[in-house]
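hi!! sorry for the late reply, been swamped w classes. u asked for the two structures so here they r. pasted raw, havent cleaned anything up. first the sequence of the first protein and right below it the tokens
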Amino acid sequence: MELLPTDKQIMDYAELIAMIGVNVQPGQTVVVMAPIGAARLARQIAVAAYEAGAHNVHVEYNDEELSLVKYKHAPEESLSEYPMWRANAWEEYAENGAAFVTIYAPNPDLLTGDIDPRRVGETIKAASQALQKYRSKLMNHANSWTLISYATPEWAAKVYPDLPVQEAEQQLWQRIIEATRLDAGNPVAAWKKHNRRLKDRVDLLNAKRYKQLRYQGEGTDLTIDLPEGHIWLGGAKANAKGDDFNPNMPTEEVFTMPHRDKVNGTVRSTKPLNYNGQLINNFALTFKDGKVVDFQAEQGYEILAQLIAADEGASRIGEVALVPDDSPISNSGVVFFNTLFDENASCHLALGQAYPVNLEGGTTMGPEELDAAGANRSLIHVDFMIGSASLSIDGILPDGSSEPIFRNGNWAEA
């Protein structure tokens, strides 16, 4: 029996990424960022991109074990440095209209040893500051980009700790194949159909013009006001040239912008958060006038404290996303310890930077205009999961009346 993924599945995956993920255009440059263990897929993405008409494909490999070496042994002063030649390269690629593919497959237990969270935080902050212009391009959807995953032995062992490593890896690949619709007869057609379903939901929510969302669940009692002119998005998006792309594969969410100063109450996480190889679990955040004023965590308290203190906007919410409990990834019953998958199995919020595309005219607004409209600004954008089978969400309409959006974790259909 051929091991997963088969050669055909890798080819189909690469084609899906090139056609649906970033929608490669003739003459375009494609940048692929991949862990060294995913070289098989990275090479096939290059093939698919060139077949779609790409002018050039640049593959950048990374090795998280080398990151661990730096966290352990590098001198203190080097942690706050980031090579500007590299930041300039990403900015140049973005300015020239490149599409960006990131293969995301971190080891959830990479930093479970005696690594000082402060050293990790310094390194992340330096990279975030240096790459701010490049990341702004992506968050404004100026360029096409997509985030996808690849099963690795380390990740699989965390998801399936009771299985032999090879069997665990096979199980994880099966989940990836299902979630990305590679098991459909025609994955590209299946994704187009899925994107249409998400667009239908987006259109319904945008027609409502909710003023506020009210959350009730186990450990959660939260209100989130939505700014005037907020826009719901989900599935395929259009870049600055009008070309559709899918930022996340898989995706089951619809999302919008909350008002940075109008989040109040307490929210409790329902899945572990893997934050750069560090786990934060069973945590709760209390907000007053948009800002975190108290928090607890059974695991990763110091890491959560570092995250919230990253900058002024890190203690505020930049995204609110709705995902039904009755959805493919959630129904798998698997906790993935990987935000790309876990956030698409659960309603979630994000600490930090808001997407300007979630606001009417937001991509043309300057910082002061975005502030005045209620958009949050930060160097970070970290999603955390809050959905469950007991979650209820009500929407407050412009006339002040209330109607159910979610009941028992799922859409409350009219």
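now the second protein. again sequence first, tokens right under
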Amino acid sequence: MDKPLQMEGSLSVDEQAALEVQELLAVPRKATIRDYVNLAKPGILFSNLIAAFGGYWVGWGSSGETFSYLTLLFTMVGTALVMASGCVLNNYLDRDMDTKMSRTQKRALPTGVVTPNQVLIYGIVLGVIGLTMLFFFANPLAALLGVVGLLVYVWIYTAWLKRTSTFSTSVGAISGAMPPVIGYCAVTQELDAGAWILFGILFLWQPPHFWALGMRRKEEYRAAGYPLLPVVYGDHITKIHMIRYLVMLVPVSLMLYLYGYVGEIYLLTATVLGLIWVFLGFMGFKTKDDDTWAKRMFVYSINYLPILFIVMILDTVRV
């Protein structure tokens, strides 16, 4: 039997069906709980909560206070919500840039699964609840540190420097260093030597960690318009800056022992972990494969922090 005649330029039944399927797929799906969880970047929250718990534990060890599970719970939840707020608002402010990077263009906001207004409200609500918890159930100093971390991350880092300056990573590290300090001050209620040492460890850890990722994703950041250090000055200059932070990180991490907060097991672990990272850093000047080297540095940095803080927790000296 002959096929039915078609007008020139018309679609066959199969072609029409395929077009309808494509149109359906193009319609954004409904947002799920998982989408909202991912907006808060759970991987970042998990690693930073280990640091916050470590700070709380060290603070308890140095304070002589009775351990309070309730204060610990509210401190961890409040800190997590403040960090989640920063991550969500980061997604809100970066939504135009995220569409230009393959690593981020499939997120819920760039794909239209959630609207910018929904994300903005979600981020603000998380921040208000988290800061309220820290203020009333930890102490005002912990809440103030949460405010500082949130403002630095959202307004100074994300909204301003991330788009304009190579200094963005170093300034953003201020907010990233707040979780263990919040945990510590939730117990001690003061910014003493322990708080500043914990701040220094996280502050110095972040630039080498992030620049290793930046070297691997350099072309994506360039396409999106981010003036990241590897994009602007290249890999060699980035390696030099990474070494500067790593060389400072080793003695700063050992200061917890020198001030009597932790024992010899931590001292040995921090020394070995730090020197290995410094050695890997210097190996970058000999490698002919920067991408593989940067991947090793990034993976090592991810493992360095939880190992250091777990040992810190296990070897805290109780006064």
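hope this helps!! also noticed smth abt the second:
Confidence is low (pLDDT under 50) at residues 1-9, 21-26.
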